[in-house]
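Final report, Chapter 2: Outcomes

The project's central promise was a pipeline that accepts a single protein chain and returns its three-dimensional structure in a standardized token representation, suitable for archiving and comparison. That pipeline is now operational. To close this chapter, we reproduce one record exactly as it appears in the project archive, with the input sequence first and the structure output second.
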Amino acid sequence: RGSARLMFGRWLGYEARRKEQLKKAPPGILQEFLSVPFPAPNTPIYETPILAVDFETTGLNPKTDHILSVGCIAMEKGDIKLSSAYHQVINTDGDLAEESVVIHQITDAEKSLYGSTLETSVEKLLEALAGHVMLVHFARIEKNFLQRACKLLYGMAPDFPIIDTLDVCKRRYDRKMEAYENSALRLFNLRDSLSLPAYGAHNALSDALSTAELFLAELALRPEKSMPPLKDFVL
């Protein structure tokens, strides 16, 4: 009961901050994003509008590194909406480090030719995210980088509820009270453990889809007969 009260209180905090930030938001996409309430905490999880999101970045520090590409895909009523898929490379300032290119396979030429501005990509993402809960794997990256981008673009960093599949899977392992390596919580190791197909790593859209599929697989493992509420999953 204590944890349920804590989660509900946290959700009220999200809503209170959304309303307060809405009063201060500049006209435009951030104001539009904040004008849409978050789904209610008791919404059954399969009825919750969810947007799976992934960023490829030039590093792990949002103060010094940049978002290099954005991928997202919507989930509605337990289905992944492939028609909603969005992927965009961002034309960041400066040349990319060779070790970074090896990981994400985005070159300087590609970002120059096909990259959009950070503002355009963030606007598209906020438009898709309005009224949805963000779903990610390892929330620190997407949350911190998106808030940093909004701070730079709009002068304020919005707060929003997040479901993190790393946290969801970790809690399942902890309930089993079995030892596991930290590497077991990596996205593609978790997918492999649940016999999900192997996709190429470090493409923002592919990783967003991988996260969405992993979340649905995790939901299928839960023992509850009734649909669990959204509040059971949000960080």
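Archive annotation: The CA atoms of residues 44 and 215 lie 14 Å apart.
This record, like all others produced under the grant, will remain available to the consortium after the project formally closes.
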